[in-house]
User: Which sequence fits this backbone?
């Protein structure tokens, strides 16, 4: 485009389309009206003599010269247009503030109003101004313009012309300005014309390829969580740059063959990489868009945004990163003319309401050196910074280079960032830039960017040396001597004093010694809750050993693994303890055995990433150091009452036990049934007057609710210590709002078993003070560092891995020296050789020196190729006001692919939750199943017990009410739904479609019921999809219904049977759809409609012999694959099923060919095979080809005539072929599946019956007589379009795709109805009519249990007539659903019969909904489709048809990802109209989900997204 020499010509018209950039701003204004986000202030201080009247005349002169400043934007005709007014009155005020005592403050208030007042794009004018006199010869001139008519380069044009108009006004002469050759409206027309054709398509293809797979967002660490919807509140921070810094950057650029901009951008990319940890970055940069002479003197919005993709992977040296940036920028700038919104539309990344698409961070360089200052006669102007209070992106990073000095200006979103954070980033960028300029060979991952402020907070320091104290049991013995009569342990009605507990432990210790236990041994404990656990722990320590606890309820296999790996000397059980302490054989006196505080105290096993638990060995000194460190914070004492709430096999129990026993306090052992009943536990806290409580956040959430119902408050509770899980703000808010504990203080403590329970502490004063998961500062005996992958400290606010050093670091993992060496290693402090523990936990430093927890570094799960952080989904769920708690897990059964399940506690129903999430998260982050629970199950440790979570059900859209089926009919249907849909616990209120049902599954349910002797009409699923309403329509089966069961050759007319050739298994007439497909193919041999090719990239092992066997087996199993057509030899066209047909398997080995050559060969083969027409008289009408690309990658191409396979049949054959290939590859003797019980000939008989049905004839006559199908295009229809043109494939943005099933579930319909309603609305826009008559593809499969087993073409196209007047979006969706239900009994009547009643028999448009469940089985198998779009789409597809507009809405069966495929066989439908249809379809879904009660006929279509 930019290479074109054709000039822009002056049209002189008063209206014009919007330029691409203007369309984006217009849409954003409609999206968020009444904001000043795109107000551009031009504010100058002037010194000198000034004539206010001349200033105003000069401004009006500029406005009169430039049409852009007299333009308004109207959508009166549906599509927005710019309208040039002949003249406008510019609001301009003058204020003399010289008499004001504080003129500057008064001026600031006036400027605040003029700058931040929104513009009305439809009414205009789109600029305003004011002149303020603040002193003698001191002025402030402000002009504010909307960005839609102005860009940065407009400023210099404006200043130059304002000065000239002012001089002309002063001297009463005409301005010395040449007439403008064109105006902005001329440019907008020219740009619109250029956005079509092959050249523009090539440019778009460049950006599609360039940004393919690019991340949808930059994960910059923010100060606040991102709002659910994007906001534009902002401010600007300015940081001066050191003198000479940019000169040195230009010097480096010259040496490296780059530009100064590239050097600065590369440094900024390195900064973003260091802050995000991302290697793949997309950073926006503005380009002027004025590469034509005609545009140089114009005011207007010409600027374009380029999405620069920068690869920072492999930790390159800065010099190498600069090379990458240079090469990428040069190539991108060669394609800069493509409008940014067109790029976004083509790339279609996941859209999120919370961020701008594709680009959230913008980098710009502004060279103002040598610029002349504005002069208005004697008055000299200087820029005056002004803050609009808005931000267009998350960050706009501008490097400003001017004669007065260089600076960084950062416009930032204040809902995300604090000013201090942005200033710190700017200073780090300066530090990083200094470093790479000094040494361009330094790696970007290691170049120092820490500022002095960072160093003061994040620099690692060695932990203090802590002198060894007594062993735990020795310290206990001293306490027992001081408080002999105080109660040490309470368990129900049982109480032990310190003397009694000590004596029992001593007896048991002597028993252990008699059993051979010595210093350094390990003793296993397998004990029920009670005092025996405490006695045994003390006894083992007194005997010189370390205890290894397991819960008796743990599986025997786990107990054996723990005790075996720990190499225990013996295992104590309850009977052993009871016998020993009751025996008079053992002395109750202290043993006083030799030992050291370095001796091991316990080994507690934690989960291991390999699935095998790992035992952490902790010494006495680790525990005593912890309690010495917290003594000043908590002041624990003899009056404290603690609970032993947690399992003694969880290290929180160590804190609870020794917190009591080392201070003379009382330990209340909580019975397990009480611990699992929050109400009973809350009563125990009151009854036992507990003062110190330790809880996980999950347990606290349940206790909070329980305590709110207590008749008396928890008056004695003084500390609630939280740990074990991440504490979230909602936990804290609920506690302060609801808990009855007036004196209790909350302390959030982070820790892990390997660092002895607790590492950091943070006291929480109020809910308002805890907006993030703050874990505080390291305890005095420890040190914490937060490091990047290179082991260097990360800056303030940047997430890294926590490592912990000091007296709490455990001894290591028992029996695992390799893992111990890996995780317990020297730390980041030079000269410190003590081990530091690498936690694997993520955190970041806050400016005040506290730490903020950010989850595990390995929490992510991978589902359908997406990396997913469950915490992100959990946070979104907890933003719902009616959800109290939740947990998100990845669930997988042996026979299903992994999927996300959200368990939610609260009042919100699943449909409500799904809709809520769909508006906030990409589709792949919306859980497949929403499970309501009364409360989350907890482990004995107080954490969420994931193993106790109920089995997930497909509860999408189910309400909170649940009534079990009551009648026999309800139970029968519920059982069938359960079998077909895989849904348990179905209630009377459940809706078939909300549970995942669709038309195919309704056939399966009807078939299942028929096998049990009952009938249910298919239309009943549509009219009464709720179980309680559907059940009354169930009836006893009286006849064969649709199960035709014809014998071979039974459908051949007797007179024709003698002419059948030998070697047949069967023969029957062709269906009407088959005949129509053959007709259209013969009528248009160039386009070859209905000859299909689909070529899939496959990942998995390929075995040619097994594949050939599988192909032979599948062809033999399905008669339609052995079918040919005979159009002339019989009394009616027949299809012949041959007994023996071979489908040759062609295999080509491309493993030695380069990747680009492979792609070319794949495409060439697919299209070459498609071009070879089938001989319809010769079976098979199928070809299969394989191209081997790598050891585990191959291309599978299938060419078939559509007349033998519909979409469901094709994907089922495809899946069956791959599954049998895998089975035969693994076991050549694998038996084939049984032959299908239903065959295509049964459907042929049904169609004949439908054709003869008087009821159906009357139905269609009544419905369609005189109806005229909707016409598309601009003229007489032709069939001149080739199969390789007129096809658009568009993946729906993930957030938009997720709205389809959510909206469907909310309205009790299927996703098909929502997509069909969007199609009808888009067609109404395209055709300019309020009544749409479109074709609808319907499925005519048999309604028996085997109906889905048959392969063939079970399709029909029926006309659907939809008047739109008076319809809201909700009523439209329900109306098309109702129409489909009415059509269902008559869906098999051939279109050729229905067309007799139409005023015109030709349908211009047709709609198909595809959700092929067979492909879902491949999603996570060993062999799967490689497809980044939906996960199920082919690499090459050509499926031409005969419609002027054929639309297919395709849903991935394993997710909500969706694609729209639009195909036109008619050149009368232009490419622009195809694009318009797609935009309107997308917009229709957006409108119906955001404003369901809005009227369909008044919507504005998809202008903002085209």
Assistant:
């Amino acid at each position: 485009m930019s290479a074109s020499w054709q000039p822009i010509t002056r049209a002189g018209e008063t209206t014009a389309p919007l330029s691409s950039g203007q369309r984006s701003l217009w849409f954003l204004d409609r999206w968020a009206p009444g904001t000043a986000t795109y107000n551009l202030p031009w504010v100058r201080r002037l010194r000198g003599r000034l004539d206010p009247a001349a200033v105003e005349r000069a401004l009006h002169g500029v406005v009169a010269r430039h049409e852009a400043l007299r333009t308004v934007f109207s959508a009166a005709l549906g599509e927005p247009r710019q309208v040039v007014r002949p003249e406008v009155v510019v609001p301009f005020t003058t204020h003399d503030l010289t008499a004001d005592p504080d003129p500057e403050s008064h001026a600031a208030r006036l400027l605040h109003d003029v700058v931040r007042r929104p513009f009305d794009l439809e009414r205009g004018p789109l600029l305003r101004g004011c002149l303020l006199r603040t002193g003698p010869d001191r002025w402030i001139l402000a002009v504010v313009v909307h960005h839609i008519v102005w860009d940065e380069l407009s400023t210099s044009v404006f200043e130059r012309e304002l000065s000239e108009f002012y001089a002309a006004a002063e001297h009463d002469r005409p301005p010395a300005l040449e007439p403008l050759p064109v105006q902005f409206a001329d440019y907008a027309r020219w740009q619109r014309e250029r956005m079509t054709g092959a050249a523009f398509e090539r440019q778009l293809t460049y950006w599609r390829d360039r940004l393919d797979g690019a991340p949808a967002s930059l994960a910059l660490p923010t100060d606040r969580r991102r709002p659910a919807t994007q906001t534009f509140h902002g401010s600007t921070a300015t940081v001066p740059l050191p003198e000479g810094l940019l000169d040195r950057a230009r010097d480096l650029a010259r040496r490296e063959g780059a530009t100064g901009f590239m050097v600065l951008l590369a440094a900024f990319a390195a900064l973003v990489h260091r802050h995000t940890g991302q290697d793949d970055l997309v950073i926006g940069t503005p380009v002027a868009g004025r590469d034509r002479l005609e545009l140089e003197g114009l005011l207007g919005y010409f600027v374009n945004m380029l999405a620069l993709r920068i690869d920072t992977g492999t930790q390159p040296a800065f010099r190498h990163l600069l090379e990458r940036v240079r090469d990428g920028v040069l190539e991108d700038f060669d394609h800069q003319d493509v409008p940014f919104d067109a790029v976004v539309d083509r790339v279609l990344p996941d859209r999120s309401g919370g961020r701008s698409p594709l680009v959230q961070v913008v980098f710009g360089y502004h060279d103002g050196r040598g610029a002349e200052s504005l002069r208005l006669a004697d008055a000299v102007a200087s820029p005056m910074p002004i803050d609009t209070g808005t931000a267009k992106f998350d960050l706009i990073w501008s490097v400003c280079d001017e004669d007065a000095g260089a600076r960084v200006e950062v416009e930032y979103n204040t809902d995300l960032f604090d000013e201090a954070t942005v200033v710190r980033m700017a200073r780090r960028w300066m530090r990083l830039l200094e470093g790479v300029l000094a040494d361009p060979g330094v790696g970007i991952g290691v170049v120092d960017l820490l500022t002095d402020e960072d160093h003061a907070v994040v620099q690692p320091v060695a932990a203090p040396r802590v002198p060894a104290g007594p062993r735990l049991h020795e310290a206990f013995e001293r306490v027992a001597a001081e408080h002999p009569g105080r109660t040490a342990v309470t368990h129900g009605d049982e109480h032990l004093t310190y003397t009694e507990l000590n004596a029992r432990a001593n007896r048991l210790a002597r028993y252990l010694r008699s059993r051979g236990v010595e210093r350094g041994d390990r003793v296993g404990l397998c004990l029920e809750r009670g005092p025996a656990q405490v006695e045994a722990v003390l006894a083992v320590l007194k005997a010189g050993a370390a205890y290894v606890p397991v819960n008796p309820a743990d599986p025997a296999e786990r107990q054996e693994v723990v005790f075996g790996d720990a190499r225990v000397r013996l295992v104590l059980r309850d009977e052993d303890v009871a016998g020993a302490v009751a025996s008079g054989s053992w002395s109750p006196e202290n043993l006083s055995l030799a030992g050291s505080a370095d001796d091991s105290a316990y080994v507690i096993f934690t989960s291991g990433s390999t699935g095998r638990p790992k035992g952490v060995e902790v010494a006495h000194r680790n525990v005593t150091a912890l309690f010495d460190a917290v003594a000043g914070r908590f002041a624990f004492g003899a009056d404290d009452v603690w609970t032993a709430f947690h399992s003694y096999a969880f290290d929180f129990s160590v804190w609870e036990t020794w917190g009591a026993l080392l201070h003379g306090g009382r330990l209340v052992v909580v019975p397990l049934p009480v611990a699992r009943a929050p109400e009973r536990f809350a009563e125990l806290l009151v009854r036992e007057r507990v003062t110190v409580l330790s809880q996980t956040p999950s347990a606290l959430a349940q206790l909070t609710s329980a305590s709110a119902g207590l008749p008396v408050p928890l008056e004695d509770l003084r500390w609630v210590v939280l740990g074990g899980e991440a504490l979230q703000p909602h936990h804290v808010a609920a506690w302060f709002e609801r808990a009855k504990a007036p004196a209790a203080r909350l302390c959030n403590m982070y820790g892990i078993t390997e660092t002895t329970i607790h590492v950091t502490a943070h006291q929480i004063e109020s809910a308002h003070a805890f907006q993030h998961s703050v874990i505080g500062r390291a305890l005095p005996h420890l040190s914490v560092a937060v490091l990047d992958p290179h082991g260097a400290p990360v800056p303030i606010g940047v997430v890294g891995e926590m490592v912990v050093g000091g007296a709490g670091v455990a001894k290591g993992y028992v029996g695992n020296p390799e893992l111990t060496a890996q995780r317990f290693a020297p730390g980041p402090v030079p000269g410190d050789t003590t081990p530091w523990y690498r936690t694997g936990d993520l955190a970041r430093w806050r400016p005040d020196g506290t730490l903020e927890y950010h989850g595990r570094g390995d929490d992510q799960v991978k589902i359908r190729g997406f990396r997913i952080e469950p915490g992100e989904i959990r946070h979104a769920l907890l933003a719902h006001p009616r959800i109290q708690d939740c947990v998100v897990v990845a669930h997988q059964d042996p026979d299903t692919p992994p999927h996300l399940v959200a368990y939610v506690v609260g009042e919100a129903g699943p449909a409500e939750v799904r809709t809520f999430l769909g508006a906030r998260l990409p589709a792949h982050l919306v859980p497949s199943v929403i499970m309501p629970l009364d409360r989350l199950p907890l482990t004995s440790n107080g954490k969420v017990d994931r193993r106790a979570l109920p089995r997930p059900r497909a509860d999408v859209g189910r309400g909170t009410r649940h009534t079990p089926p009551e009648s026999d009919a309800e139970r029968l249907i519920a059982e069938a739904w359960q079998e077909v849909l895989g849904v348990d616990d179905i209630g009377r209120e459940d809706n078939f479609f909300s549970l995942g049902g669709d038309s195919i599954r309704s056939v399966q349910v009807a078939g299942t019921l028929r096998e049990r002797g009952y009938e249910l009409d298919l239309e009943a699923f549509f009219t009464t999809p709720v179980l309680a309403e559907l059940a009354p329509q169930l009836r006893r089966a009286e006849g064969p219904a649709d199960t035709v069961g014809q014998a071979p050759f039974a459908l051949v007319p007797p007179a024709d049977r003698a002419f059948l050739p030998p070697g047949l298994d069967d023969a029957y007439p062709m269906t009407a759809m088959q005949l129509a497909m053959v007709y259209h193919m013969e009528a248009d041999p160039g386009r070859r409609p209905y000859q299909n090719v689909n070529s899939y990239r496959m990942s998995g092992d390929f075995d040619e012999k097994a594949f050939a066997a599988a192909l032979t087996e599948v062809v033999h199993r399905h008669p339609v694959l052995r079918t040919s057509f005979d159009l002339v030899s019989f009394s009616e066209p027949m299809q012949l099923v041959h007994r023996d047909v071979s489908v040759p398997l062609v295999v080509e080995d491309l493993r030695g060919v380069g990747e680009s050559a492979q792609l070319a060969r794949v495409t060439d083969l697919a299209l070459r095979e498609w071009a070879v027409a089938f001989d319809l008289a010769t079976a098979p009408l199928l070809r299969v080809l394989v191209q081997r690309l790598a050891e585990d990658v191959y291309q599978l191409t299938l060419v078939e005539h559509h007349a033998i396979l519909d979409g469901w049949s094709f994907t089922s054959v495809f899946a069956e072929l791959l599954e049998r290939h895998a089975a035969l590859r693994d076991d050549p003797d694998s038996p084939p599946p049984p032959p299908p019980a239903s065959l295509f000939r049964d459907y042929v008989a049904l169609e004949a019956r439908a054709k003869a049905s008087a009821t159906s004839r009357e139905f269609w006559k009544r419905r369609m007589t005189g109806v005229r199908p909707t016409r598309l295009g601009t003229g007489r229809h032709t069939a001149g379009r080739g199969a390789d043109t007129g096809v658009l494939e568009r993946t729906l943005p993930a957030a938009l795709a997720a709205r389809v099933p959510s909206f469907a579930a909310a309205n009790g319909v299927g996703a098909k109805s929502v997509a069909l309603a969007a199609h009808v609305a888009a067609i109404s826009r395209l055709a300019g009519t309020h009544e749409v008559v479109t074709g609808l593809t319907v499925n005519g499969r048999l309604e028996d249990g085997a109906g889905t087993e048959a392969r063939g073409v079970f399709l029909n196209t029926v006309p659907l007539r939809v008047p739109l007047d008076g319809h809201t979006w909700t009523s439209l969706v329900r109306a098309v659903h109702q129409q489909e239900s009415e059509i269902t009994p008559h869906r098999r009547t051939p279109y050729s019969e229905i067309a007799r009643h139409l005023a015109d028999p030709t349908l211009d448009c047709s709609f198909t909904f595809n959700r092929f469940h067979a492909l879902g089985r491949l999603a996570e198998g060993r062999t799967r489709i490689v497809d980044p779009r939906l996960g199920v789409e082919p690499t090459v597809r050509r499926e031409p048809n005969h419609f002027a507009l054929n639309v297919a809405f395709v849903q991935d069966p394993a997710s909500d990802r969706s694609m729209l495929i639009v195909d036109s066989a008619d050149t009368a439908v232009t490419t622009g109209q195809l694009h318009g249809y797609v935009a309107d379809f997308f917009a229709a879904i957006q409108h119906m989900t955001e404003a369901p009660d809005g009227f369909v006929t008044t919507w504005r279509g998809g202008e903002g997204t085209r």
User: Anything to note?
Assistant: The CA atoms of residues 1166 and 1185 lie 9 Å apart. The mean pLDDT is 87. The chain has 42 helices and 57 strands.
